[in-house]
Amino acid sequence: MPAVFLGAAAPAGAEILRGHGGPVRAIVEPTTPGQLVTGSFDQSVIRWRLPEARAEAVLRGHEDAVAALAALPDGRVVSAGADGRIVIWPVAGTAPERSVAAHKAPIAGLAVSPDGRLVASASWDRTVAVTPVGAMTPAGAGAARVFEGHADNVNGVAFLPDGRAVVSAGYDATLRLWPLGDREAPSILTLPAPLNAVAVAPDGEIVAAGADGALHFVARSGGGLTTRERLDVMPGPVVALAITADGTRLAAAGLGGAVVLVDRTARRPVATLVGPGLPVWSLAFARDGRSLFTGGADRLVRRWDAVTGRPVDAIAPNPRDPAAEASTVRGAVVFRACRACHGLEADDTNRAGPTLHGLMGRRVATAAGYDYSAALKGMDIVWTPETVARLFEVGPSAYTPGTRMPEQVIADPDDRRALVEWLAEVTR
Asked: Where are the transmembrane segments (predicted)?
């Protein structure tokens, strides 16, 4: 049985990467020494300086959530997200170096070829695109090779070690190998469940993460793909997957907040890392294989010992947060679904949505420090208990068309009432 380690709350001195205003959806360690880069639902990319755990720069070039990151060999970083754009960031500075509209739907996965010349992207438009780095400008947007065939969202993509093919994982339960040579047909393997992520080991073995809570080990055989083994690692879907540079260890994360470390050679879990019980959306091993970074719905990045599984840094909750997990007040419990995007303090502005401080009596789209959509700026709504209740009764898309707010309907009138009464109290 694998060891279980808890990432319990720690004193403020143990905090590491706290700065995003939404769930941390992507993590990568660039080749530049001492850097870590993260991307978030708050539409930002943050470049961190380690080991000081200091935010070196907040990078803004996306118009929606950032969901994927990849590192180029020269130290630059590539980001992509729900706006369908791919952005290249320099080693230093805050201005995007290059940007291209690569897909017509959110991008869920990125990979860089071994020689650093190509970027592969997996999208919910059901395609995989392979774009030359040098063509990532509006003028060069047509240079990408687009591979079609998935029948549902494509969630992950990776290059084979020789760089001559990419493999994609789709929610249609297929793993597809796309040769980059001319006139070569793809290889398709159907697995037992929808797929959320994929990784490739240095020896060429492919590992796919499924909604069935399993890791599927796949090999190339006779020009096709063959399942080698299945390893069940958690009771719910695996939503993120990472592999060490030497291929010896895997990390799989789930919606329940657990992360399982797996010995790939032995095909067995060696440790389970348990954080605050919130979804873990992103994983990245340090290049030396000694540390594992995890990011999740609590907007924080945690660091773990990748060998023992023990927490290196554990994050303390914000003591000012009246909606902390320990609260049993009904309105606070309902609000937990909103915490990833909205803070309650006047200075809590760095999130995917505006602060709710001073909400009641405030005209829509007027909170300071937040960039609202044009649609909201033109609306004649004042937030009152009645209008807030109506928002959650019919949903944001019906009540505030054109908003970037995720769809959220509270069907139970008692829950709506509890939320509104609680917000009226805590946002004054």
From this structure: none
Report pLDDT digits (tens) over 398-416: 899 888 776 678 888 998 9
d(CA 44, CA 54): 16
Cα–Cα nearest to 395, from 372, 416, 377: 416
Give the angle subtended at the CA of 15 by the CAs of 14 and 19, to the nearest 5°. Answer: 170
Q: Which residue has the higher pLDDT, 7 or 118?
A: 118
All domains of the chain in start order, with CATH: 3-313 (2.130.10.10), 330-426 (1.10.760.10)
Can you tell me whether residue 413 is helix, strand or coil? helix
Contact 250, 236 (CB under 8 A): no
Q: Within 10 Å of residue 181's Cβ, how many Cβ atoms?
A: 7
pLDDT band at 8 (very low <50, low <70, confident <90, very high): very low
Amino acid code (one letter) for 354: P
Extended strands (E) in 192-345: 195-200, 206-210, 214-221, 224-232, 238-243, 249-254, 258-263, 268-274, 280-285, 291-296, 300-305, 311-313
Q: Is the pLDDT of residue 270 over 80?
A: yes
Which residues are within 8 A (CB) of 326 and not within 5 positions of it... i.e. 6 or more apart? none
Residue 128 to residue 147: CA distance in whole angstroms: 5
Query: Alpha carbon of 371 to those of 64, 163, 219, 353, 397: distances in Å?
Result: 12, 41, 47, 9, 18
The Cα–Cα gap between 324 and 321 comes to 6
Instruction: Please give the mean pLDDT across all residues of the chain.
Output: 88
